[in-house]
Amino acid sequence: MPVTSFPGFPCRLTLDDAELGETVLLVNYQSVPAGPYRARHAIFITEGLTEAASFMDAVPPALERRTLSLRAFDRDWDMVAAELAQPGEADGAIRRMLADPAVTIIHAHNATRGCFAAAVERA
Questions:
Q1: CB distance 70 to 24 below 8 Å
Q2: Residue from 84, 49, 57 nearest 70 by CA
Q3: How many domains does the chain have?
Q4: Considering 18, 65, 85, 97, which has the largest number of Cβ atoms within 10 A of its Cβ?
């Protein structure tokens, strides 16, 4: 798909929005592999990229500018918490969720379309 707006096409590899004129691939991705919350959803990947970005103790640009549905899971993939974070609120929400020692991973989804955006793990 050609990128026709910015922001508008959040790349799952860069964790930022693809630039106008770039091409993105819309693919299906399994974000939760097991349990009752097993999930698959669409994600964008900027064409030609092969390496994923990594952010340590920082919220990536695509997540910072969107309303997110944050879902915290324990080691058995049971959802133990969920929170809606408005643009600019993800950092605080993630830190609150990680304060619970039962939380092993948090999944961020774009709230409007529900697409999987990123996984947050303890370092």
A1: no
A2: 84
A3: 1
A4: 18
